[in-house]
Amino acid sequence: MILITGATGTVGSEVIKALLPAQAGHLRVLTRDPGAVFPDGARKVVADLGDSDLAPVLDGVHAVFSITHGLDIAAHDQRLVTAAQRAGVERVVKLSVRNVGHDGTDPITTLHRAGEEAIRDSGLAWTFLRPTAFMSNALNWAGMIAADQVVYAPFAAGRAAVVDPADIAAVAAACLTQDGHFHRVYELTGPEPLSPADQVALLGEVLWRDLRYVEADPAGMVAQMVSYGMPEEQAQAVTELFRSTMEPYNSEPTGDVTAVTGRAARSFTDWAKAHRDAFPIPEAVPVAATNGESR
């Protein structure tokens, strides 16, 4: 049995797709939302990593995909791995962030580093996936694009080899079901470094629209996330994580997606084509809230 935590999130939902139908009946998905709906073949378990009894959640599980986010990353990783030890779990694959391996000191990176250390110290077989920023973060621009064809986002000088969450999921699925990935760290990227303006330009080409990029104050990003209900401390932490696109290493593509999956990482243009319908023309389209999992 494979357990996926954070199953309704950006990456978790893609991992479910990547594992089905091959793992149908052998896939358990953890959510705090009793109303969450998952594909056939995935068994839903409603629990909270923060305070639920995890013994029944992990009963019969041999592999765990750990997705933790917000300001409870380290605490939830520790609770999960402690319960996994007791349950006899064989392997843990953790979704982390690329900054961990490059001396990042922002709050979210620091929490992921502590979570990784807890898993290393557990004695379980582990694999760490450290992606750079997600291509899907561009979905947060849909409302702005529909309203006036202008994208306002901070860190204009930042460049990241943004990665498709579906590629992260493909790597995760391999690490959960195949041998040869124990005690490995994979830095997951797309094929090319892109600034916010580059991404907007490529979106414009795919959508056949004359889009513009305007640099925004990071404080505006914080205010936007707070307006969608995110605690201010967490919004500040997420913004500091995004600031890491200013660091040179985030612009350097790796070959880890190809090394694990045997195929090239998806380009931003191809991702945009696949998600064209998420950028409708009509105005008054709400901008999606950025969550703690987003990179």
Plain-language structure description:
With 295 residues, the chain is an alpha/beta fold. The chain has two domains: 2-131 and 164-188, Rossmann fold (3-Layer(aba) Sandwich), CATH 3.40.50.720; 135-160 and 190-252 and 266-278, NAD(P)-binding Rossmann-like Domain (Rossmann fold). Helices cover 37% and strands 14% of the residues. It has helices at 10-19, 55-58, 73-87, 107-120, 142-148, 165-177, 196-207, 218-227, 232-243, 256-261, 268-274; strands at 2-4, 27-31, 42-46, 63-66, 91-95, 125-131, 150-153, 184-188, 212-215. It has a seven-stranded parallel β-sheet, sandwiched between helices. The protein has a two-stranded parallel ribbon with strand order 7-9. Helix 1 (10-19) links the parallel strand 1 (2-4) and strand 2 (27-31). Helix 1 crosses helix 6, helix 3 (73-87) packs parallel to helix 4 (107-120) and helix 8 (218-227) crosses helix 9 (232-243). Residues 6-178 form the NAD(P)-binding domain. Pfam families: NAD_binding_10. It comes from Streptacidiphilus cavernicola.
Brief sketch in words of this structure:
This protein is α/β, with parallel strands linked by helices and 295 residues long. It is 37% helix and 14% strand. The chain has a 7-stranded parallel β-sheet with strand order 3-2-1-4-5-6-8, sandwiched between helices. A two-stranded parallel ribbon has the order 7-9.
